[in-house]
Protein backbone atom coordinates (compact mmCIF):
# COMPACT_ATOMS: atom_id res chain seq x y z
CA UNK A 1 0.00 0.00 0.00
CA UNK A 2 1.40 3.38 -1.02
CA UNK A 3 0.17 6.92 -0.31
CA UNK A 4 0.31 9.41 -3.15
CA UNK A 5 -1.22 12.72 -4.26
CA UNK A 6 -4.66 12.19 -5.75
CA UNK A 7 -3.81 14.28 -8.83
CA UNK A 8 -0.91 11.90 -9.53
CA UNK A 9 -2.94 8.70 -9.10
CA UNK A 10 -4.42 8.31 -12.59
CA UNK A 11 -4.01 4.70 -13.70
CA UNK A 12 -3.37 3.43 -10.17
CA UNK A 13 -5.48 0.76 -8.43
CA UNK A 14 -7.48 1.70 -5.32
CA UNK A 15 -6.74 -0.59 -2.39
CA UNK A 16 -9.89 0.30 -0.42
CA UNK A 17 -13.43 1.56 -0.87
CA UNK A 18 -13.88 5.33 -0.95
CA UNK A 19 -16.99 6.31 1.04
CA UNK A 20 -19.09 9.42 0.63
CA UNK A 21 -21.17 10.56 3.60
CA UNK A 22 -23.89 13.18 3.17
CA UNK A 23 -26.04 13.45 6.29
CA UNK A 24 -29.58 12.32 5.66
CA UNK A 25 -28.80 11.47 2.02
CA UNK A 26 -26.16 8.79 1.60
CA UNK A 27 -23.36 6.79 3.16
CA UNK A 28 -21.95 4.54 0.47
CA UNK A 29 -18.87 3.88 -1.60
CA UNK A 30 -18.34 6.10 -4.62
CA UNK A 31 -15.45 3.85 -5.69
CA UNK A 32 -14.71 0.26 -4.75
CA UNK A 33 -11.47 -1.54 -3.99
CA UNK A 34 -9.77 -2.49 -7.25
CA UNK A 35 -11.09 0.51 -9.18
CA UNK A 36 -8.57 1.94 -11.65
CA UNK A 37 -8.48 5.70 -11.19
CA UNK A 38 -9.23 7.83 -14.26
CA UNK A 39 -8.78 11.53 -14.95
CA UNK A 40 -12.53 12.02 -14.50
CA UNK A 41 -12.35 10.47 -11.01
CA UNK A 42 -9.98 13.10 -9.62
CA UNK A 43 -12.61 15.84 -8.92
CA UNK A 44 -14.88 13.26 -7.27
CA UNK A 45 -12.08 12.03 -5.01
CA UNK A 46 -11.17 15.59 -4.06
CA UNK A 47 -14.84 16.36 -3.29
CA UNK A 48 -14.91 13.61 -0.65
CA UNK A 49 -11.78 14.97 1.02
CA UNK A 50 -9.20 12.68 -0.58
CA UNK A 51 -6.26 14.99 -1.35
CA UNK A 52 -4.06 11.90 -1.01
CA UNK A 53 -4.98 8.34 -1.90
CA UNK A 54 -3.74 4.87 -1.01
CA UNK A 55 -2.96 2.73 -4.02
CA UNK A 56 -2.29 -1.00 -4.03
CA UNK A 57 1.21 -2.49 -3.90
CA UNK A 58 1.70 -6.23 -3.58
CA UNK A 59 3.25 -7.36 -0.27
CA UNK A 60 3.43 -11.05 0.50
CA UNK A 61 3.41 -10.39 4.24
CA UNK A 62 0.25 -8.26 4.28
CA UNK A 63 -3.46 -8.84 3.70
CA UNK A 64 -5.99 -6.37 2.38
CA UNK A 65 -8.80 -5.50 4.79
CA UNK A 66 -11.41 -7.42 2.77
CA UNK A 67 -9.30 -10.57 2.55
CA UNK A 68 -8.63 -10.42 6.29
CA UNK A 69 -12.33 -9.84 6.94
CA UNK A 70 -13.08 -13.17 5.27
CA UNK A 71 -10.77 -14.83 7.78
CA UNK A 72 -12.64 -13.15 10.65
CA UNK A 73 -15.93 -14.37 9.24
CA UNK A 74 -14.64 -17.94 9.07
CA UNK A 75 -13.67 -17.74 12.76
CA UNK A 76 -17.19 -16.70 13.68
CA UNK A 77 -19.63 -18.37 11.33
CA UNK A 78 -21.43 -21.63 12.04
CA UNK A 79 -24.40 -23.47 10.61
CA UNK A 80 -27.59 -21.44 10.04
CA UNK A 81 -25.63 -18.22 9.37
CA UNK A 82 -24.86 -16.40 6.14
CA UNK A 83 -22.46 -13.52 5.37
CA UNK A 84 -23.34 -10.06 4.16
CA UNK A 85 -21.46 -8.42 1.31
CA UNK A 86 -17.87 -7.55 2.23
CA UNK A 87 -17.61 -3.79 2.40
CA UNK A 88 -14.71 -1.65 3.66
CA UNK A 89 -13.27 -4.58 5.60
CA UNK A 90 -16.64 -5.38 7.21
CA UNK A 91 -18.72 -8.55 7.12
CA UNK A 92 -21.95 -9.14 9.05
CA UNK A 93 -23.42 -12.51 10.07
CA UNK A 94 -27.12 -12.95 9.33
CA UNK A 95 -29.39 -15.60 10.90
CA UNK A 96 -30.87 -18.11 8.46
CA UNK A 97 -33.48 -19.38 10.94
CA UNK A 98 -35.15 -18.61 14.26
CA UNK A 99 -33.06 -19.90 17.13
CA UNK A 100 -30.98 -19.37 20.25
CA UNK A 101 -27.66 -17.56 19.89
CA UNK A 102 -24.70 -19.01 21.79
CA UNK A 103 -21.49 -16.99 22.15
CA UNK A 104 -18.11 -18.27 23.33
CA UNK A 105 -17.28 -15.12 25.29
CA UNK A 106 -13.75 -16.15 26.25
CA UNK A 107 -12.65 -16.72 22.66
CA UNK A 108 -14.53 -13.63 21.45
CA UNK A 109 -12.61 -11.51 23.96
CA UNK A 110 -9.31 -13.17 23.01
CA UNK A 111 -9.69 -12.13 19.37
CA UNK A 112 -10.80 -8.59 20.21
CA UNK A 113 -7.82 -8.20 22.56
CA UNK A 114 -5.39 -8.60 19.64
CA UNK A 115 -6.21 -5.16 18.25
CA UNK A 116 -6.60 -4.00 14.62
CA UNK A 117 -9.67 -6.20 14.29
CA UNK A 118 -13.04 -6.43 16.02
CA UNK A 119 -16.08 -8.64 16.43
CA UNK A 120 -19.28 -7.15 17.87
CA UNK A 121 -22.34 -9.31 18.49
CA UNK A 122 -25.69 -9.65 20.23
CA UNK A 123 -25.84 -11.07 23.72
CA UNK A 124 -25.65 -14.84 23.88
CA UNK A 125 -28.51 -16.99 25.24
CA UNK A 126 -31.08 -14.75 23.59
CA UNK A 127 -33.38 -15.56 20.67
CA UNK A 128 -32.86 -14.30 17.15
CA UNK A 129 -35.20 -14.47 14.18
CA UNK A 130 -34.47 -15.38 10.60
CA UNK A 131 -32.89 -12.39 8.89
CA UNK A 132 -31.62 -10.81 12.12
CA UNK A 133 -28.10 -9.48 12.28
CA UNK A 134 -26.09 -11.70 14.66
CA UNK A 135 -22.69 -10.00 14.60
CA UNK A 136 -20.48 -7.59 12.71
CA UNK A 137 -16.75 -7.95 12.10
CA UNK A 138 -14.18 -5.48 10.82
CA UNK A 139 -10.50 -5.10 10.16
CA UNK A 140 -9.47 -1.65 11.43
CA UNK A 141 -6.52 -0.74 9.12
CA UNK A 142 -6.56 -0.98 5.33
CA UNK A 143 -3.98 -3.75 5.43
CA UNK A 144 -2.95 -6.10 8.22
CA UNK A 145 -0.08 -8.53 8.77
CA UNK A 146 -0.77 -12.12 7.77
CA UNK A 147 0.98 -13.18 10.98
CA UNK A 148 -1.54 -11.25 13.05
CA UNK A 149 -4.44 -13.02 11.37
CA UNK A 150 -2.74 -16.33 12.12
CA UNK A 151 -2.63 -15.31 15.79
CA UNK A 152 -6.30 -14.44 15.60
CA UNK A 153 -7.12 -17.89 14.21
CA UNK A 154 -5.18 -19.48 17.05
CA UNK A 155 -7.03 -17.34 19.64
CA UNK A 156 -10.38 -18.24 18.10
CA UNK A 157 -9.65 -21.96 18.18
CA UNK A 158 -10.95 -24.68 15.89
CA UNK A 159 -14.67 -24.21 16.58
CA UNK A 160 -16.71 -21.18 15.42
CA UNK A 161 -17.17 -18.49 18.05
CA UNK A 162 -20.94 -18.39 17.47
CA UNK A 163 -23.62 -21.06 17.37
CA UNK A 164 -27.26 -20.68 16.35
CA UNK A 165 -29.43 -23.49 17.69
CA UNK A 166 -32.78 -23.79 15.88
CA UNK A 167 -35.84 -23.99 18.12
CA UNK A 168 -37.41 -27.43 18.45
CA UNK A 169 -41.09 -28.09 17.74
CA UNK A 170 -41.99 -28.89 21.34
CA UNK A 171 -45.33 -30.09 22.69
CA UNK A 172 -46.23 -28.66 26.08
CA UNK A 173 -48.89 -29.29 28.72
CA UNK A 174 -50.13 -26.83 31.34
CA UNK A 175 -51.21 -27.79 34.85
CA UNK A 176 -53.08 -24.95 36.53
CA UNK A 177 -53.24 -25.27 40.32
CA UNK A 178 -55.34 -23.54 42.94
CA UNK A 179 -58.72 -24.10 44.58
CA UNK A 180 -59.81 -20.63 43.54
CA UNK A 181 -59.53 -21.58 39.85
CA UNK A 182 -60.57 -25.23 40.26
CA UNK A 183 -63.86 -24.30 41.94
CA UNK A 184 -64.55 -21.45 39.53
CA UNK A 185 -64.20 -18.66 42.09
CA UNK A 186 -61.94 -16.72 39.73
CA UNK A 187 -61.24 -16.89 36.01
CA UNK A 188 -58.07 -18.59 34.77
CA UNK A 189 -56.02 -15.73 33.33
CA UNK A 190 -52.69 -17.57 33.56
CA UNK A 191 -53.12 -20.13 30.77
CA UNK A 192 -53.63 -17.61 27.90
CA UNK A 193 -50.38 -15.86 28.88
CA UNK A 194 -48.43 -19.13 28.77
CA UNK A 195 -49.92 -20.12 25.43
CA UNK A 196 -48.90 -16.80 23.86
CA UNK A 197 -45.35 -17.02 25.20
CA UNK A 198 -44.94 -20.55 23.86
CA UNK A 199 -46.20 -19.40 20.45
CA UNK A 200 -43.24 -17.01 20.23
CA UNK A 201 -41.00 -20.07 19.87
CA UNK A 202 -43.26 -22.38 17.92
CA UNK A 203 -44.17 -24.59 20.90
CA UNK A 204 -47.67 -26.10 20.91
CA UNK A 205 -49.92 -26.64 23.94
CA UNK A 206 -51.42 -30.13 23.57
CA UNK A 207 -52.84 -30.54 27.06
CA UNK A 208 -54.33 -28.43 29.84
CA UNK A 209 -55.87 -29.32 33.17
CA UNK A 210 -56.90 -27.43 36.31
CA UNK A 211 -56.16 -29.08 39.66
CA UNK A 212 -57.11 -28.22 43.20
CA UNK A 213 -54.44 -27.63 45.85
CA UNK A 214 -54.10 -31.32 46.79
CA UNK A 215 -50.46 -32.10 45.98
CA UNK A 216 -51.27 -35.71 45.09
CA UNK A 217 -53.78 -34.53 42.49
CA UNK A 218 -51.19 -32.13 41.04
CA UNK A 219 -48.58 -34.90 40.87
CA UNK A 220 -51.04 -37.19 39.13
CA UNK A 221 -51.87 -34.51 36.55
CA UNK A 222 -48.19 -33.90 35.78
CA UNK A 223 -47.49 -37.61 35.57
CA UNK A 224 -50.38 -38.18 33.19
CA UNK A 225 -48.99 -35.67 30.71
CA UNK A 226 -45.48 -37.09 31.04
CA UNK A 227 -46.82 -40.58 30.38
CA UNK A 228 -48.53 -39.23 27.26
CA UNK A 229 -45.14 -38.11 25.98
CA UNK A 230 -45.24 -34.32 26.11
CA UNK A 231 -41.91 -32.54 25.82
CA UNK A 232 -42.49 -30.17 28.73
CA UNK A 233 -44.95 -29.57 31.59
CA UNK A 234 -45.62 -26.08 32.92
CA UNK A 235 -47.24 -25.73 36.35
CA UNK A 236 -48.83 -22.44 37.32
CA UNK A 237 -49.81 -21.29 40.80
CA UNK A 238 -48.94 -22.54 44.27
CA UNK A 239 -45.26 -21.60 43.97
CA UNK A 240 -44.79 -19.40 47.05
CA UNK A 241 -43.76 -20.51 50.54
CA UNK A 242 -47.28 -20.34 51.98
CA UNK A 243 -48.25 -23.62 53.72
CA UNK A 244 -51.05 -24.30 51.23
CA UNK A 245 -48.85 -23.74 48.16
CA UNK A 246 -48.04 -27.33 47.25
CA UNK A 247 -46.85 -27.23 43.64
CA UNK A 248 -43.09 -27.62 44.39
CA UNK A 249 -43.82 -30.73 46.49
CA UNK A 250 -46.05 -32.11 43.73
CA UNK A 251 -43.30 -31.66 41.13
CA UNK A 252 -40.72 -33.29 43.40
CA UNK A 253 -43.01 -36.28 43.97
CA UNK A 254 -43.03 -37.09 40.24
CA UNK A 255 -39.39 -38.09 40.66
CA UNK A 256 -38.18 -35.13 38.60
CA UNK A 257 -34.69 -33.88 39.45
CA UNK A 258 -34.97 -30.39 40.94
CA UNK A 259 -32.35 -28.10 39.43
CA UNK A 260 -33.39 -25.02 41.37
CA UNK A 261 -36.28 -23.68 43.39
CA UNK A 262 -35.61 -19.97 43.40
CA UNK A 263 -33.83 -17.63 40.95
CA UNK A 264 -31.93 -14.33 41.35
CA UNK A 265 -34.38 -12.58 39.03
CA UNK A 266 -37.16 -10.08 39.66
CA UNK A 267 -39.87 -10.73 38.65
CA UNK A 268 -39.51 -14.48 39.07
CA UNK A 269 -37.74 -15.30 42.32
CA UNK A 270 -40.01 -18.30 43.09
CA UNK A 271 -39.25 -20.07 39.80
CA UNK A 272 -38.70 -23.84 39.84
CA UNK A 273 -36.85 -25.84 37.18
CA UNK A 274 -36.65 -29.63 37.12
CA UNK A 275 -36.03 -32.40 34.60
CA UNK A 276 -37.84 -35.70 34.38
CA UNK A 277 -36.35 -39.05 33.37
CA UNK A 278 -33.55 -40.02 31.03
CA UNK A 279 -34.84 -37.72 28.29
CA UNK A 280 -34.53 -34.77 30.67
CA UNK A 281 -37.97 -33.36 29.93
CA UNK A 282 -38.47 -30.05 31.75
CA UNK A 283 -41.12 -29.78 34.45
CA UNK A 284 -41.35 -26.12 35.42
CA UNK A 285 -43.09 -24.27 38.22
CA UNK A 286 -44.04 -20.74 37.23
CA UNK A 287 -44.62 -18.07 39.90
CA UNK A 288 -47.64 -15.78 39.70
CA UNK A 289 -45.63 -12.86 38.31
CA UNK A 290 -45.49 -14.61 34.93
CA UNK A 291 -49.24 -14.03 34.68
CA UNK A 292 -49.18 -10.25 35.17
CA UNK A 293 -45.64 -8.95 34.51
CA UNK A 294 -44.64 -8.23 30.91
CA UNK A 295 -41.26 -9.98 31.20
CA UNK A 296 -39.95 -12.34 33.88
CA UNK A 297 -37.55 -15.19 34.54
CA UNK A 298 -39.66 -17.29 32.16
CA UNK A 299 -38.64 -15.08 29.21
CA UNK A 300 -34.97 -15.63 30.02
CA UNK A 301 -35.25 -19.40 30.37
CA UNK A 302 -37.89 -20.37 27.79
CA UNK A 303 -35.81 -19.81 24.62
CA UNK A 304 -33.02 -21.95 26.06
CA UNK A 305 -35.50 -24.68 26.96
CA UNK A 306 -37.09 -24.68 23.49
CA UNK A 307 -33.63 -24.85 21.90
CA UNK A 308 -33.12 -28.11 23.81
CA UNK A 309 -30.50 -26.81 26.23
CA UNK A 310 -30.29 -28.66 29.55
CA UNK A 311 -29.78 -25.94 32.13
CA UNK A 312 -27.77 -26.36 35.32
CA UNK A 313 -28.14 -24.48 38.58
CA UNK A 314 -25.10 -22.38 37.66
CA UNK A 315 -26.92 -21.14 34.54
CA UNK A 316 -29.70 -19.77 36.76
CA UNK A 317 -27.34 -18.47 39.45
CA UNK A 318 -25.51 -16.22 36.97
CA UNK A 319 -28.71 -14.36 36.01
CA UNK A 320 -28.46 -12.04 39.03
CA UNK A 321 -26.49 -9.33 37.24
CA UNK A 322 -29.07 -7.87 34.89
CA UNK A 323 -31.80 -9.89 36.58
CA UNK A 324 -33.80 -6.85 37.68
CA UNK A 325 -36.54 -5.87 35.24
CA UNK A 326 -37.24 -2.13 35.46
CA UNK A 327 -40.87 -2.48 34.28
CA UNK A 328 -40.41 0.28 31.73
CA UNK A 329 -43.62 2.00 30.55
CA UNK A 330 -42.77 0.83 27.01
CA UNK A 331 -41.20 -2.63 27.03
CA UNK A 332 -38.34 -3.07 24.52
CA UNK A 333 -37.20 -6.55 25.64
CA UNK A 334 -34.95 -8.17 24.52
CA UNK A 335 -33.35 -4.88 23.45
CA UNK A 336 -32.76 -3.79 27.03
CA UNK A 337 -30.60 -4.72 30.01
CA UNK A 338 -32.90 -7.40 31.45
CA UNK A 339 -31.11 -10.73 31.63
CA UNK A 340 -27.78 -9.31 30.49
UniProtKB/TrEMBL annotation:
Pathway: Cofactor biosynthesis; molybdopterin biosynthesis
Source lineage: Bacteria, Bacillati, Bacillota, Clostridia, Lachnospirales
The family this protein is said to belong to: Belongs to the MoeA family.
Protein name (Swiss-Prot/TrEMBL): Molybdopterin molybdenumtransferase
GO annotation, cellular component aspect: cytosol
Reaction catalysed by this enzyme: adenylyl-molybdopterin + molybdate = Mo-molybdopterin + AMP + H(+)
Keyword Metal-binding in record: yes
Cofactor: Mg(2+)
Keyword line: Magnesium, Metal-binding, Molybdenum, Molybdenum cofactor biosynthesis, Transferase
GO MF annotations in UniProt: metal ion binding; molybdopterin molybdotransferase activity
Keyword Metal-binding: yes
Domain MoaB/Mog stretches: 173-307
Biological process, per Gene Ontology: Mo-molybdopterin cofactor biosynthetic process
Functional description taken from the UniProt entry: Catalyzes the insertion of molybdate into adenylated molybdopterin with the concomitant release of AMP.
Enzyme Commission code(s) on record: 2.10.1.1
InterPro entries: MoaB/Mog-like_dom_sf, MoaB/Mog_dom, MoeA-like
Amino acid sequence: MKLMRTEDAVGQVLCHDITQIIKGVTKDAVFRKGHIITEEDIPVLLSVGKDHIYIWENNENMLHENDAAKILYDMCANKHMTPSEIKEGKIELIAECDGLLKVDTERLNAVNALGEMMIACRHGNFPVKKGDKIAGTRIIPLVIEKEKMERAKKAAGEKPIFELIPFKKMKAAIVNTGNEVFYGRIKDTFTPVIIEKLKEYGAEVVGHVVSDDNHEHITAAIQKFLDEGVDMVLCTGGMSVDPDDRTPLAIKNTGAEIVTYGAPVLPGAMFLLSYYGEKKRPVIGLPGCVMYAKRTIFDLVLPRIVAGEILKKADIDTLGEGGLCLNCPVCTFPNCGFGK
